[in-house]
């Protein structure tokens, strides 16, 4: 269009200038211009020719280019066709269809497997039910159960494997899906590029047509060639550019095709690997199928075996049930007959039941009635028991009194003063030679008699009992223990150890720690007795330890042992004596006793310079008080056991002792004589007993009077050198003992006890010690008294008189 307009303007400009050149000089000019125009025309013709040549060359070129382009387009078409073919081939060969087919196949297989699995599960469920039934039935063998368990495990494993295969399959499905999508994408892109290519081709062919048309129009309009040439030139450059672009486009498309091919190749490779995997999976699935088949077969076999087993068991059970049924029928028949016989029994039972029901209804009333009567009966019984108890208690008390009376009578008959003699063995202290020879012998047939060789003559003595040197502490205590226990019954008891120093008094009373004497044994016995009576009685045992030295009483358990104690009458008017400030210790065990003794010993030792000497010059007293309470009767008893280790009875005064030694001797003499006097007065039942003549007798007044019991243990040394003292001691013993034999009249005859000197019997004229002071009147001269004693002794029995 623009070309046409330009051509129009060019022609109109030339027509306006022609009339001016045809005028003269204008004509000249016109001729010149004509010539010039002719030249110009020639030049233009030449140019046109050149242009035509150029154009034709260009045309040829264009034709060649279009041919080339056509060739290229044909090539591209062919390529496109090839690609389309390739794509369709690929599609038919490997593409989505195969994968889809494969997927479909897998899906179908999967479905089949699923159905099979369902069937298997159904079978399994049925088998489980059967198994449960069999487990309930007692006859099944557990082998099947185990086999079933194994099969179930296997099945579960297979199911797991199938699950895995399924998972893999679904993965593959996904992959195939992805690949299909990518293929579709590639196809789309290919389609797009084909469409683009077709468009381009279309455009190019259009342009070619345009160019050809232009060339044709140019050919038909040679006058406008100049402009057309320009246009062609312009068009030609455009065509060149378009060609260039289409070449670039073509190149790009070829590159794209190359890339697509590459992608296609990769996809082929992927497809191959997928196919491989699919083949593997298929093989696996086949394997699983075979395994499943096998398991299934096995399961079927097992099921068959189980079925057989079940049938067998059922048959067995059936036959057993038949047998049982028969037995049951038989039983039933028996039961029926029983029922027939039981009916009357049932009737009677019903009657019984009804009567029982009535009884139960009446039971509370009956019970109340019975309880009331039972209560009454029990009350009566209790009353009876109480009255019986009261009667028994009364009888018991009477019996107690009777017992005491009998005891008193017994004591009276036996004498409540008993005299024992104990001869110690010869010791090292006795020395050697004639002086240490044995002067004491015994009667093998009579344990109450002993013989003493004194100054060449044998003197015999009869006591209540004589202990030879070999007698043990235990033997001695055996004879003493009855006295000790009577203290529990409320009697007062005195046990004296009498004899010269070294004769064994302390040994008999205290003994040694390894071999204790009467003191410790008596307390132990008391403890044992008290324990034995603990069910009915409450007992308390207390001890005091005292010493009488030079007529002074001292408390060896007190805080101030040197303090002199006084003996006083009880202010309650009972006439009882007591020692204010005398310490009493409550003892319950041997340990307590040992502590008390030790304490006493320590106190005694601190008060003197020579304990041995001191102890032989003083009386040691262990006072045991036993207080009892009979819980049932409320009866209270108090018994006192006085265990006295007397001072040495040897005659010191005669050996010319002076000063304190003489004083000690006089005090000892006085107290021992006072003891003799008291015993005598008691035995001869005198109205007045001179208790107050010494501290010892005054202190022991309660324990010496009344129905108290006294034991005098006369200790003697068997050594020849001590025979004089032994004689004295034995005479004292015999006289003490002989007192009870005399009639009441003796009161008048033997109103006073002989002194120690008198006891010796070989000094008739000796005067009594100055310190001695009897409250009782002295009835006559000592010689007459001695003669009287001798007379009594002669009349008393087998004893020979002591040679005077
Ligand atoms: P006393 O107390 O009369 O002065 P002892 O009891 O101290 O006399 O005795 C003096 C010695 O004789 C002591 O060594 C004692 O062990 C010993 N003795 C006394 N009697 C016996 C006996 N029966 N058996 C063995 N040794 C005894
Ligand atoms: Mg002694």
Describe the protein.
It comes from Apteryx mantelli. InterPro entries: Kinesin-like_fam, Kinesin_motor_CS, Kinesin_motor_dom, Kinesin_motor_dom_sf, P-loop_NTPase. Keywords: ATP-binding, Coiled coil, Cytoplasm, Cytoskeleton, Microtubule, Motor protein, Nucleotide-binding. Pfam families: Kinesin. The chain is α/β, with parallel strands linked by helices and 804 residues long. The radius of gyration is 80 Å and the shape is elongated. 27% of the residues are buried. The structure holds adenosine-5'-diphosphate and magnesium ion (MG). The site of magnesium ion has 5 residues, from helix 7 and helix 10.
- What share of the residues does DSSP label as strand, in percent? 5-15%
Identify low-pLDDT runs: 1-23, 740-756, 760-804
Number of helices: 17
Strand count, sense and barrel status of the largest sheet are: 10 strands, mixed
Rg of Cα set: 80 Å
Bound compounds, please?
A: adenosine-5'-diphosphate, magnesium ion
CA-based shape: elongated
Count of beta strands: 15
**Structural class category:** alpha/beta
- N-C termini distance: 209 Å
Estimate percent helicity: 55-70%
Mean pLDDT level: 78
Domain Kinesin motor: 416-739
Pfam family, one: Kinesin
Family: Belongs to the TRAFAC class myosin-kinesin ATPase superfamily. Kinesin family.
Keywords: ATP-binding, Coiled coil, Cytoplasm, Cytoskeleton, Microtubule, Motor protein, Nucleotide-binding
């Amino acid at each position: 269009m623009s070309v046409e307009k330009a051509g129009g303007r060019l022609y109109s400009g030339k027509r306006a200038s022609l009339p001016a050149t045809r005028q003269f000089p204008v004509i000249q000019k016109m001729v010149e211009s004509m010539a010039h125009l002719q030249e110009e025309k020639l030049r233009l013709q030449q140019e046109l020719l050149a242009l035509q040549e150029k154009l034709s060359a260009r045309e040829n070129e264009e034709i060649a280019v279009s041919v080339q382009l056509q060739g290229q387009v044909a090539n591209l078409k062919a390529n496109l066709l090839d690609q389309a073919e390739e794509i369709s081939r690929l599609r038919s060969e490997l593409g989505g269809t195969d994968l889809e087919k494969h997927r479909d196949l897998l899906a179908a297989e999967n479905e089949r497997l699923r159905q099979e699995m369902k069937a298997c599960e159904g079978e399994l469920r049925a088998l489980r039910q059967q198994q449960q039934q069999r487990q309930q039935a007692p006859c099944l063998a557990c082998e099947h159960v185990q086999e079933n368990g194994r099969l179930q495990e296997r099945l579960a494993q297979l199911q797991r494997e199938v699950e895995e295969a399924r998972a893999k399959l679904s993965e593959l499905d996904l992959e195939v899906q992805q690949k299909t999508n990518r293929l579709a994408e590639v196809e789309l892109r290919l389609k797009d590029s084909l469409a683009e290519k077709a468009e381009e081709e279309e455009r190019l062919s259009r342009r070619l047509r345009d160019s050809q048309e232009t060339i044709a129009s140019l050919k038909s309009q040679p006058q406008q060639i100049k402009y057309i040439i320009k246009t062609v030139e312009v068009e030609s450059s455009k065509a060149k550019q378009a060609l260039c672009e289409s070449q670039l486009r073509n190149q790009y498309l070829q590159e794209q095709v190359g890339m697509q091919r590459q992608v296609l190749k990769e996809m082929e490779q992927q497809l191959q690997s997928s196919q491989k995997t699919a083949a593997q999976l298929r093989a696996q699935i086949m394997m699983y199928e075979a395994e499943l088949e096998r398991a299934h077969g096995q399961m079927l076999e097992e099921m068959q075996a189980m079925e057989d087993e079940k049938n067998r068991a059922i048959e067995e059970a059936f036959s057993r049930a038949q047998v049982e049924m028969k037995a049951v029928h038989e039983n039933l028949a028996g039961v029926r007959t029983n029922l027939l016989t039981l009916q009357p029994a049932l009737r009677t039972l019903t009657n019984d039941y009804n009567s029982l029901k009535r009884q139960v209804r009446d039971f509370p009333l009956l019970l109340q009635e019975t309880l009331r009567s039972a209560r009454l009966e029990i009350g009566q019984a209790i009353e009876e028991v109480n009255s019986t108890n009261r009667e028994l208690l009364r009888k018991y008390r009477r019996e107690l009194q009777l017992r005491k009376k009998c005891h008193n009578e017994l004591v009276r008959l036996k004498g409540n003063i008993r005299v024992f003699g104990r001869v110690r063995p010869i010791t090292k202290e006795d020395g050697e030679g004639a002086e240490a020879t044995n002067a004491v012998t015994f009667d093998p047939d009579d344990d109450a008699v002993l013989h003493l060789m004194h100054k060449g003559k044998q003197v015999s003595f009869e006591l209540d009992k004589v202990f030879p040197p070999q007698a043990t502490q235990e033997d001695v205590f055996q004879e003493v223990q009855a006295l000790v226990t009577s203290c529990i019954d409320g009697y007062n008891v005195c046990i004296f150890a009498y004899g010269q120093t070294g004769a064994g008094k302390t040994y008999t009373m205290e003994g040694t720690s390894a071999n204790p004497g009467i003191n410790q044994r008596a307390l132990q016995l008391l403890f044992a007795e008290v324990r034995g009576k603990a069910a009915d009685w409450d007992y308390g045992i207390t001890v005091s330890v005292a010493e009488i030295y030079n007529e002074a009483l001292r408390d060896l358990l007190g805080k101030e042992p040197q303090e002199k104690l006084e003996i006083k009458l009880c202010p309650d008017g009972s006439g009882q004596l007591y020692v204010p400030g005398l310490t009493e210790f409550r003892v319950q065990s041997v340990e307590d006793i040992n502590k008390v003794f030790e304490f006493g010993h320590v106190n005694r030792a601190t008060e003197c310079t020579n304990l041995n000497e001191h102890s032989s010059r003083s009386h040691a007293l262990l006072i045991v008080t036993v207080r009892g309470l009979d819980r049932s009767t409320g009866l209270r008893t108090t018994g006192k056991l006085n265990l006295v280790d007397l001072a040495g009875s040897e005659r010191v005064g005669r050996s010319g002792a002076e000063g304190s030694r003489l004083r000690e001797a006089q005090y000892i003499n006085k107290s021992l004589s006072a003891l003799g006097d008291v015993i005598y007065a008691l035995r001869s039942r005198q109205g007045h007993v001179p208790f107050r003549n010494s501290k010892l007798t005054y202190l022991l007044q309660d324990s010496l009077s009344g129905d108290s019991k006294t034991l005098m243990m006369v200790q003697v040394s068997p050594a020849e050198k001590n025979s004089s003292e032994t004689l004295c001691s034995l005479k004292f013993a015999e006289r003490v003992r002989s007192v009870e034999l005399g009639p009441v009249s003796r009161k008048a005859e033997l109103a006073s006890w002989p002194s120690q000197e008198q006891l010796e019997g070989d000094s008739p004229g000796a005067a009594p010690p100055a310190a001695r002071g009897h409250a009782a009147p002295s009835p006559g001269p000592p010689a007459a008294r001695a003669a009287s004693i001798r007379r009594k002794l002669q009349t008393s029995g087998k004893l020979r008189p002591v040679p005077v």
